[in-house]
Amino acid sequence: MVAVFNKDLLSWYLLTLKVNELAAETSHQVQNSNGNSEAPIAATEVPIVTKPVPDWVIAIRDKINQAENEEDTAAWGKLCIYRIPEGLRNNEVKAYIPQTVSLGPYHHGDERLRNMEPHKWRAVHHVLKRTDKEIEVYLDAMKELEERPRSSYEGPISLTSSEFIEMMVVDGCFILELFRGAALGFTDLGYSRSDPVFAMRGVMHSIQRDMIMLENQIPLFVLDNLNSIQMNNADRTGDVSRLALYFFDPLIPSDEPLLMKKGRKPKIEPDAIFDPLTDQGGPHCLDVFRRNLLAASEGAKPAPRIWISRWSQSNRVVDKRTDLQCHRAKRRRNQVRKKKN
Questions:
Q1: Which of 81, 280, 301, 304 has the smallest C-beta neighbourhood within 10 Å, fewest atoms?
Q2: What is the pLDDT of residues 1-21, one digit of tens each?
Q3: Quick one: which of 229, 110, 234 has its CA closest to 172?
Q4: What is the mean pLDDT of the chain?
């Protein structure tokens, strides 16, 4: 006899033999019932018995298939607006979470930032009134681009198609109004001098700070598209980045304005203002700001501003007083030692 080392294998073997015996008996009975039939009846096909696949193996196969579907290099190439890594979220929250206005889907609908939503719609109203265009023009343009801006953000976006398109149009028009108002004057755009938002005072500094946060960005090509509609020109690439440079100029850590002299309004022409993204394009306004900083760091260092000189002078005065106090203390210690000796 053959020693059997696998109980399961023996069970499957005996079961197969039993099935074959039953099939043979059935075939023999059919042949006897037909008597002298000349055409032989084909033997009944023996069913193939397969071993069932465990559930955990099926789950692993599903994960592999999902990974294969997600392995799309084209989709990764479109991603440009990321979320802050979890390892950095335990630090200063205000460094990456907007405190005044939400732009884009990551913080859309945040209760803390809802106070700015009516002002966004005011910006849309001014844009439509000034350009004499219907809102459908902007919505249709964004609907054609919906897939591209969606793929610019990391992770799935829970907004529906209509909600996402509305957000792109409203947030984009709001950003363009801020850029254009800072460069040309908000009163020239139809806003009141005492406007609580659209004025270079009040909460404007907080808005500027929120607009250079990574999770609070709108793709630059969306802004270019909306700007082209407003300007009745099919190709206005570069205008938005130039306006962004002027808008973020107060945040540049430099001793001299990088864009223009004080008291002069900027020209929105391709050769009027330094633009690091005119030729190569860019993902969003934060990247415009970053490239501008890199370009400024490579240039000549300007003379310090007056307020920095005053601050430095006061520091020198404090340093002299400290040195004088140390000198007096040292002289007193020497006098005490001489008396002891």
A1: 280
A2: 445 456 666 666 777 777 777
A3: 229
A4: 77
319 pLDDT higher than 70 = no
Closest CA to 190 of 116, 117, 127: 127
What tokens appear for 249 in the block? 């100029």
Helix axes 161-184, 117-131, angle to 10 degrees: 70
Highest mean pLDDT among 17-31, 155-169, 304-318: 155-169
pLDDT for position 293: 81
Give the CA dihedral 260, 262, 267, 272, nearest 10 degrees: -20
Compute how many other C-beta atoms are within 10 angstroms of the C-beta atom of residue 129. 10
Q: How far is CA 152 from CA 23, 76, 82, 217, 251, in A?
A: 63, 9, 8, 10, 26
Asked whether the whole model's pTM tops 0.90, one would answer no
Residue 219 CA to residue 241 CA, distance in Å, equals 12
Average pLDDT, integer, range 297-322:
46
In angstroms, the Cα distances linking 55 to 52, 60, 164 are 9, 9, 38
Complete DSSP assignment for 70-124: H--HHHHHH--BPPPPGGGTTS-GGGTS-SS---SSTTTT-GGGGGGHHHHHHHH
pLDDT tens profile 55-79: 898 899 998 888 877 665 556 667 8
Please report which helix (H) or strand (E) contains residue 227, including its range: helix 220-230
Residue 19: which region, alpha, beta or left (left: phi > 0; alpha: psi -120 to 50)?
A: alpha
Residue 278 per-residue DSSP state: T
Cβ neighbours for 143, distance < 8 A, ≥ 6 positions apart: 161, 165
Q: 109 is written with which tokens?
A: 């609908």
Q: What is the DSSP letter of 203?
A: T
Please calculate the CA angle 293-255-196 and round it to the nearest 5 degrees: 80
Collapsed DSSP state (helix, strand, coil) of residue 29: helix
Residue 74 pLDDT:
53
